Amino acid sequence: MEAQSKLAVVLLSGGLDSATVLAIAKSEGYAPHALSFSYGQRHAWELEAAKRVAASLGVIEHRIASIDLRVFGGSALTSDLAVPKGRAAEEMAHGIPVTYVPARNTIFLSFALAWAEVLGANDIFLGVNALDYSGYPDCRPEFIAAFEAMANLATKVGVEGRQRLTIHAPLIAMTKAQIIARGIELGVNYGLTSSCYDPSPTGAPCGQCDSCLLRQKGFRENGIEDPLLARA
Fold first, then answer.
1. What is the pLDDT along the chain (232 residues), one digit of tens a residue?
2. For the chain, which domains are there?
């Protein structure tokens, strides 16, 4: 049985970044418990990808929590707003796009914190990135640091001194190309993942949303073809 201190909760969307983070956690000796969310996202196909990735990389347990962020809307991912397509890199680098889901990472980390307390896990991993990303405020290092500080004040086990929680964001200062290169080193099968914000009913990527364009850029910079496109 794994030592209790090596248990970890890993947020797993089914995308490229979270799959890489799961592989990193495993490579560092953690026993990963994967947590995904059905939150009313239009790209719910990613949950099928999360199941495939969890099985491929071997997690202790994979849970899918159901919450409905459509009751608030405010995002192209949880309402009928159009997903932006064909944006240039310069456009993506400025402003917060309509695909931002209000407070999503705060909500997800709160769920992860609750599960970590129940498990007795001291570590949470997530795949936020502050370089090749679309301007989301909850992907910044200062957000992660602030949530970690709050988390250590928020739980019974923290107050009793039985848990010191660390939030790991190993991709936060990496480019998409560097993330892909690291994942390949660790044996991640990116053909199992789904990154698209607006996939077809069968999960085929649109190829034009911000997430697809950033993903394609990362594979190009590694001199390899995205396995999702090779299969299309």
1. 344 449 999 999 999 999 999 999 999 999 999 999 999 999 999 999 999 999 999 999 999 999 999 999 999 999 999 999 999 887 887 788 899 999 999 999 999 999 999 999 999 999 998 876 657 888 899 999 999 999 999 888 888 888 899 999 999 999 999 999 999 999 999 999 999 999 998 899 999 999 999 999 999 999 999 999 865 5
2. 4-231 (3.40.50.620)
